[in-house]
Each structure stands twice: as structure tokens, then as C-alpha cells.
Design brief:
CATH class of the largest domain: Mainly Alpha
Strand order of the largest sheet: 3-2-1-4-5-6
Number of domains: 4
Number of strands: 12
Number of helices: 28
């Protein structure tokens, strides 16, 4: 048994080196993900050999992938997954089939491989990295963007494909002249039935058993017990999934979906995130350790292989996205997102080498090329919006909209002085409802084809298209509109739409929703009239509600909020100055000190029941004052002395804590 001090030393060396490399990458504006991959290259057995036991690191890395997919499942839901069914089956099926077939033909011709081995290599190339792509999309808050939905649906389908791939590998080995397959049709059917039973059992237990078990754990009020229960559910489902031939990561994703349906999902996510981030770093490092630097002595085969893999995967994903009905720009971004080889390909390649489905030289070349595609992924994702903007004007107009959604002119009537809403998520949907209620015309631009089809049937004035396309904005009547509201989650699309709308209509009032305060100045510079950053609007709302609860005068609260917004939210960042701020502090404290506001119910048997406020004489008895009174559906603010305190009526009482307590005692009887 290996001395554990060596393992601890390996972890210390890896994390220390990772910190140094990530800092260096930050200085040259390279994503941290690339820094972790470079750390693995430097520490691995093919470079400085700083690690004694790479296998232990790989085991921890596998846990990182499991936890990552678990948290993605927590942030998702079964309803969200069902909304992706067309992307998942149609898009995922086309991507895997076309990429695998094309890669198999190229690999067979280049390496002179038999059909079975070429097919296996094509399958390896077809899979993309769920961990890396979802990490990039999550960091950029693009999981719910069009490119995020397409990428997620295709990636989930790829994970599902691991099951049949593992089953057919022995069959391919038999036909390639490798090891015996060891399983006929009966064995394949047995594995499929077992996988279906275990998968269905996991979903049923998640619906009926898991909520009850978590409820029992929560009653203990032990944070440690809750964390252990979540980890057991995550790792246990992954383990059971692996027994059925499913991947560990897919089992973890299912576990996340199970918990996402319960009221404990947010707490589970908060508990598991620190573990996920730590182990995910080890996953990226372990991938980098696979890169053999000796292959760079004759780099042309490796360079050709990387170019072929990235090119084929990008073009196929681009075409599939267009088939699904998304715009050319989204297709380009999605294609570059899915251009890398996935982590499951490494596992399958290792098993294929044991079955002699892949030669040693081809195996090393594939591993090196796959690692390089992973390293390139953050860079490709970064240039994707820029490249899409450059290429979009070069393509035919019919490629910029979906054929089955009709043209925008057929959907939207000629309107003027209307509101254009970009994005039909929660914010866009609520705004549209409010505008409809007050009879203000509006037009919605949305990038989700399924949403467009559904809402169009309901008579909603919605068009499909990319709002960064001038033709789409023109069809939405942007030159005749009074207000534009941008409520999407893609930062790049927000900036482009803002700049384009300002150019098309200089007098338009543009309101932009963004996530972070740091995006305010760039958006204002591009032409936005108002920018609403979610993080600071949330802070202002929490602040104002807190002050109101503490009975700070409403005019003081509203003035603070107004000044904060006018000053670009600087009031929340800078200290208050001047005598007025000091005076307001004193005024606020004088109001807060010793004051209380309580909602009390007049119960049956109370000595006040049935009396008027004058007869009850509550002020003289307790010192408290009734500010408002509700009897049934009738609400009276500052009620008259003739108002009756009937049983069941609700009174808002103001006074010191002692005075309010006395009033409560009288109302209870």
C-alpha cells in the first residue's frame, strides 16, 4: 500500500503549481481553465514528472466530473429537460451520427483502418466535453441562452450514447480481429433491460422515496447529516448507474434532477459547490497530464489531426443547429462550443485499447489531439461571437431565419409607438403581460423556435430571429418604436443589439437588463438610456425593504434609491458625506429606536371584540395606536373612531414593543 504522504505531497504540488500557472494566465488574459490544463501538462509524466501517483489524481478527477454533472442537474428540472426533447433527440442524434460517420471515413482513409476500428475512432471524435462546455457556459451565465440550450441538449444525448457504445464495443472488437466480444444478442438485451430498470427505479425513487428521506434528515437540523445525505445520493446514483452500463456522470446528472424537484435543491447546491470546484480543477489537471510532449517533435500529424477534429465537429454542430431552426450566429457559436473531444472519449479509448480496437500509436495521437482541442475550447468560445458577427453578413438571408416559422412580416402587423422586447424569458413575459393589460402595443423577438411556435398559436406578436441582425429589428418596427427592452442573458448579444438599435433609431429609448454592475458603462457608451443591473437592483430592493421594516420614513428611503440610480449606483459604493447624511442618520435612528409595527387579529373572547375604536380606547389602555383596520374585504387606512373591532378583523398597530405587546394581549383575550 502506498504511503499516503506521497499522495498528500502530490496534491500540494499540484495545487501550488496550479495557483502559479493560473495567476500567470490571468496576467496574459487566458482563461483559468486553460491554466489548469497547462498545469497538468507541466506536472505530468511526460514533462517534469512531479506526480508520484497519477492514477490517484485521475480517480479524484472522476469525482469532479460526477459533482459537476450533479450540480448541473440541480440547476435544471425535468420540465426543462422535456422542453429540450427536440434538441436532445433530433439535434443530438444528427450530431453524433454525422460526426461519427464522417470522422470514421476520414480516419479509415488516413490510417488505413478496417471498418470496425475506423467506426470506433469516429465514435470517440463525435463525443464532446460536457464538463468543459457546461463550465464555460455557466461562468458566462449562458446556460439558458440559445447556444446554451442547444449545447446542453446535444451533450446530454452524447452522454446517453455511452450506454450503447459500451455495449457494441465487444462486437466491434470481434469484427476488427481484436479480442472476442463475449456477448451475443441475448447479452446485449440483458444489459439494455437492466439499464432501463435501474434508470426507471432511480426516477421513481426520486419522486417518492428521496423527498421523504431528505425530510427525515432535515428534521435533525444537522448540516453535516444533510451534506452526507446529498453526497450519498449523488455518488450512490452514479454508482448504480454504472452498474447498468450508464456513465457515472450521467447517473450524477439524474441525481441532480431528482433533488431539483424538491424544496431542498438550493441548500444542496450551496453545500456541494465548494467540493465541485475543487475536484473539477483536478479533472482539468488530469486531462492535461495525458498530453505526450514527444509528439511535438514531429508536429504535423498532430496538427493535422487537431485541425480535422475541430473542423469536422464545428461544421457538423453548425449544420445541426441550423436544422433545429436557430440563426446562423447561434449556429457558429454552438459549433465552436462543441468543437473539442469529450472526457468520456478518454475512458472509451482506454477500453478500446484493451480490446485492440485502437493501435498504440493512434491512441497516443488521439489523446494528444483531444487534449489540445480541450485547451483550445475557451479560446474558440471567446472568439465565437466575433467570428459570427464577421460571417453573418456573408450568408444568404434565408439562412438567418427559420423556414418553418415564417417571415417576421407575416407575423407582426405594422405598428408604431410600440415597445420592442428582446427575449421572452421571465422578465420579457411579465413585461408583455403588463403592456397587454394597459393596451400598449408590443413586439417580441425570441431565439427559441419552440417558444415562438407556441406563443404564436396563442396570438402573441412574437417573431423568431437574432436581435443583433438589422433585418430582424427592422421587421419588428424598431424605427417606429418608442421603447426597446433587452431582456436576454447573452452579454455579447446584448451589446450588439444595443449598438445596432441605437444606430437604426437614434431617438429610441433603450432599457437593458444585465447581470452585473461592471457592464453598465460599456452599455451606456453603446447607446443604452437605462441599464438595470440585477445584482444592484436586488441590493437596493433588499436595502429599501429593510429600512421600511425598521420604520425609516418612506421619503428618505425613496430619495436614497433615486440618488443611487441617478449616480450610477455610486451611492452604494461611496461613503455618505456632508451634514445632511449625518442628520438623516440621526433622524432614522431616532425613528427606529423603540418603535414597532405589528399586525394583530381580534380573536373571539377578546374584551375589545364588537367595540368601536372609541369604546376600546386602546391608546389610553396600552399606548399603542391603530394605523389601519381590515374587516373581511374592507380595508380602512387611518380608521375613524367609529370603526368596529369585530371578531376576526385585523389591525395594524404601532407603538413601542411593550405597548404593542399589551395591545396583543387585549386582542387575544
Amino acid at each position: 500500500m502506498q504511503d499516503p504522504t506521497f499522495f498528500l505531497r502530490d496534491l500540494v504540488v499540484l495545487f501550488a503549481l496550479a495557483i502559479i500557472v493560473v495567476i500567470a494566465c490571468f496576467r496574459i488574459r487566458v482563461p483559468a481553465m486553460v491554466g489548469f490544463l497547462i498545469t497538468g501538462v507541466l506536472a505530468g509524466p511526460n514533462a517534469f514528472q512531479l506526480i508520484h501517483d497519477p492514477h490517484s489524481v485521475e480517480l479524484l478527477a472522476e469525482v469532479g466530473v460526477v459533482l459537476l454533472l450533479f450540480t448541473i442537474g440541480l440547476e435544471f428540472s425535468m420540465e426543462s429537460l422535456l422542453r429540450l426533447r427536440s434538441i436532445l433527440f433530433l439535434g443530438g442524434g444528427l450530431q453524433v451520427a454525422v460526426t461519427g460517420a464522417f470522422s470514421a471515413v476520414v480516419a479509415g482513409a488516413y490510417f488505413d483502418l478496417p471498418v470496425a476500428k475506423a467506426t470506433f475512432l469516429g465514435i470517440l471524435v463525435a463525443l464532446s466535453s460536457t464538463a468543459i462546455v457546461l463550465k464555460l457556459l455557466s461562468d458566462k451565465a449562458e446556460i439558458d441562452s440559445p447556444q446554451g440550450r442547444v449545447s446542453l441538449g446535444i451533450l446530454i444525448f452524447q452522454d446517453l450514447c455511452v450506454v450503447p457504445i459500451v455495449i457494441i464495443m465487444p462486437i466491434l472488437a470481434t469484427h476488427s480481429g481484436g479480442e472476442e466480444g463475449g456477448g451475443g444478442t441475448a447479452d446485449i438485451l440483458r444489459k439494455l433491460v437492466m439499464a432501463a430498470l435501474l434508470l426507471g427505479g432511480s426516477l421513481l425513487s426520486g419522486r417518492y422515496l428521496v423527498p421523504w428521506v431528505l425530510g427525515q434528515v432535515v428534521r435533525t437540523r444537522s448540516r453535516e447529516a444533510f451534506l452526507l445525505a446529498i453526497i450519498i445520493l449523488c455518488l450512490g446514483t452514479a454508482w448504480v448507474s454504472s452498474l447498468a452500463g450508464l456513465s457515472l456522470a450521467l447517473g450524477a446528472f439524474i441525481a441532480g434532477l431528482i433533488i431539483s424537484q424538491s424544496e431542498y435543491s438550493h441548500q444542496a447546491l450551496g453545500e456541494i459547490i465548494p467540493f465541485r470546484d475543487t475536484f473539477n480543477c483536478l479533472f482539468l489537471i488530469s486531462i492535461g497530464m495525458l498530453l505526450d510532449l514527444k509528439l511535438f517533435s514531429s508536429p504535423w500529424p498532430l496538427l493535422l489531426g487537431v485541425t480535422a477534429m475541430v473542423g469536422v465537429k464545428t461544421l457538423v454542430a453548425w449544420g445541426v443547429t441550423l436544422v433545429l431552426g436557430y440563426s446562423f450566429r447561434i449556429a457558429v457559436i454552438t459549433g465552436l462550443c462543441l468543437a473539442q473531444v469529450g472526457e468520456f472519449s478518454f475512458v472509451l479509448a482506454k477500453q478500446g485499447k484493451e480490446l485492440k480496437l485502437i493501435d498504440v500509436n493512434v491512441y497516443q495521437l488521439f489523446l494528444a489531439g483531444a487534449v489540445i482541442t480541450m485547451i483550445l475550447t475557451p479560446l474558440l468560445k471567446g472568439i465565437a461571437p466575433w467570428l459570427a458577427d464577421k460571417l453573418t453578413p456573408l450568408v444568404p438571408k434565408k439562412m438567418r431565419t427559420s423556414k418553418d416559422l415564417g417571415t417576421p412580416a407575416q407575423v407582426v402587423e405594422v405598428v408604431k409607438d410600440h415597445v420592442v422586447i428582446i427575449g421572452y424569458g421571465l422578465n420579457g413575459r411579465n413585461l408583455a403581460k403588463a403592456l397587454k393589460r394597459v393596451a400598449i402595443p408590443f413586439v417580441i423577438i425570441e431565439m427559441n423556435p419552440e417558444t415562438v411556435k407556441k406563443e404564436r398559436k396563442e396570438g402573441v406578436p412574437i417573431i423568431y430571429g437574432d436581435a443583433s441582425n438589422p433585418e430582424i429589428l427592422d421587421h419588428a418596427g424598431i424605427r417606429r418604436a418608442r421603447v426597446l427592452v433587452i431582456a436576454v442573458s447573452d452579454p455579447s448579444s446584448i451589446r450588439r443589439s444595443t449598438e445596432l438599435a441605437r444606430r437604426l433609431h437614434p431617438g429610441l429609448h433603450i432599457i437593458v437588463r444585465t447581470r452585473y454592475l461592471g457592464e453598465m458603462k460599456p452599455l451606456l457608451a453603446l447607446g443604452a438610456n437605462e441599464v438595470v443591473p440585477e445584482e444592484f437592483e436586488t441590493a437596493l430592493e433588499i436595502f429599501s425593504r429593510t429600512l421600511r421594516k425598521l420604520l425609516v420614513p418612506r421619503d428618505m428611503v425613496e430619495r436614497f434609491v433615486r440618488e443611487a440610480r441617478v449616480d450610477g449606483y455610486g451611492a452604494l459604493l461611496a461613503p455618505a458625506d456632508g451634514e445632511r447624511s449625518s442628520k438623516e442618520k440621526a433622524d432614522a435612528l431616532s425613528v427606529i429606536a423603540g418603535a414597532d409595527l405589528e399586525v394583530l387579529r381580534v380573536e373571539e373572547g377578546s374584551p375589545l371584540a364588537g367595540k368601536t375604536l372609541e369604546e376600546a380606547n386602546l391608546r389610553r389602555q396600552t399606548g399603542a395606536t391603530v394605523l389601519a383596520l381590515r374587516c373581511g374585504a374592507e380595508f380602512q387606512s387611518n380608521p375613524p373612531v367609529t370603526a368596529v373591532l369585530s371578531p376576526g378583523s385585523v389591525a395594524i398597530v404601532f407603538g413601542t414593543p411593550d405597548q404593542v405587546a399589551k395591545a396583543a394581549k387585549l386582542m387575544r383575550g
